[in-house]
C-alpha cells in the first residue's frame, strides 16, 4: 500500500491522488486501504515518511569523503533525489506544513547531529573556539543546508553539474 501511495502521490500530487486508486493499485479495496490508514492525510504522511526512510538509507550507503564530510553528504542527498520522486515533489512544491515533514524526519535530524559532532571535534582540537555552541551552530547550518537544498531543487539547478558539483555524479 505504501509503495502504491508513494507512486501515486509522486505522480499526481496529494490533491489528485485518491485512496481508492491507491488501494486498487495495491490490490486492496478502498475499505481495506482505510483499515490501514484512517484518512488520506495519514496515508500521505506515511508515504512521505517511507520515501524519506528509503532516501536516508540510500544516502547512508554512499561513501563519504572524510576530507569533506558535510559537502559530500549533501551532494549524495541531491544525487539520490531523482530516485525518490515523492520526496523531490514535496521539496519542490510542498507547503510549509509538508516541508516540516521533511525537516522533522530522521534524515535531517541525523545531519544536524553529524554537524554538531564534527564541530565538537573541532572544538576539542582547538580549531573552534571554546565559547562556541556546537549545537546552536549545527542548527544554523541545518537551516542553511535545507534552504540551499530547496533553492537548488526549486530553481532547477539539481541537474546543473557546474553549480552542484560535476565530480559528484549528480544527474
Our estimate of the beta-strand percent is under 5%
What would you call the shape? elongated
Mean pLDDT comes to 88
What is the element string, with H for helices and E for strands? Answer: HHHHHHHHHH
Q: What value does the Rg take, in angstroms?
A: 18 Å
Largest sheet composition: none
Low-confidence segments, given as residue ranges, are 164-171
Count of discrete alpha- or pi-helical segments spanning 4 or more residues = 10
Calculate the terminal CA-CA distance, rounded to whole Å.
29 Å
Percentage of helical residues?
A: over 70%
Number of strands: 0
> What structural class do helix, strand and pairing data support?
mainly alpha
What are the main properties of this structure?
single chain; 171 residues; mainly alpha; 10 helices; 73% helix
